[in-house]
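Q: What does the assembled structure look like for these inputs?
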Amino acid sequence: MKIHIPNSAFLGNIDPFLKNFNPKDSSHLIITANKKWISVHPVVLSMIASLGIMLEPSQIKCEKLTATSKHYLERMGLFKFLGVTSGITINKHESAGRFIPLTQIKTSKELTNFIDEMTPLLHLKPKHAEPLRYIMSELVRNVLEHSLSKFGAIVSAQYHSKNNTIRIGIADTGIGIWQSMNKSHSPKNDLEAIRLALIPGITGTTRKEGGTEFNAGAGLFFIKSIATVNRDFFMLYSGEAMFKLLKRKGERIQLHADPFKDRCSSKKTLPFWQGTVVGIDISLDTTQEFSMLLDLISQTYKGAIKERKKAKYKKPKFI
Amino acid sequence: MIHIKLSKQVGSFAENKDIAREIRLKKIVPALKKGQKVVIDFEGIDSTTQSFIHALISDLIRKNGATVLDEISFKSCNETVQKIITIVIDYMQESEN
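A:
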């Protein structure tokens, strides 16, 4: 496998980074990077760490980094995760900033502890902590319950003061969305599987409305809704497909049960990612009240169930 | 009547679905079988997730129908918690109808 860390890869411009990923030959990982500058979304680091954790350090080759911003990777714990030495020393006087270093979560208990410790690390007000806790809990539980990955979820996050945004990346190397959805549905490709996973009330665990005792098929819809209401980026990448909710400006807020009715972009022929990757930005300037968001979710959810039920109604036969 | 204070087990953010399931199976279901009323107390809980509430109550509605809600009360819920409980109960009833 080969992965190149570019000078810039955030959710808005992440497509070239994903296109350059080479998943061939999973027995080793070669990491290269831009020589001058590295400024990347935490999701990029979560992806690299997810690949690295499957291998022994001897199977990982990381070229010597020369970019002036290379300290960011060390700070986020990438080299510690990979078990390779970077040769980068961190000056103790440098500001630590507000970030959550790469963290592996493999159990429900670890997730609960992580959420408890996460909020103080990012120095968040309750209004901002609420959606963040929600997002972390639902996304990581998705990994623990559906990915079947023995490595669990690799999580990282960083606060960016320039645009007052928290950026979150979660990656796993499990079965991926297509295989998960294919247990109860028949998505024709990875992008169709992602679409189904984002529609409220559709879960890979059953075809029945209302889900099972443990899954409703609502988690990803809630997360996408948080991003929609706050006009933030949200990216879901699995198999060869990627769905990206794009930022919106000044429009009336409207949630859609069908993700392709949102302002979005998608790709269905990307290099194959074995597992699932989620990236999300939360702008603290536009964070809407969680309560208002729940009203919108409620309306959209009920509407989606009614539409699906209506679609199954028998139609009169007029001859 | 049985009174279940959730914060003792889940802290201020009720998100651990495993605990929700355990509370349902070990406390709520046996109480309902005995014909007892159930009070689920959210005092001390700031927020919850749809997944937690789903794991806590959806199977009760699925197996007993919405009339089971006549036997259950949700106490000391803030606005967010009330709305998430309402979403789960609504979609379960929409799904059952």
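Residues 126-147 of chain A form the longest helix (22 residues).
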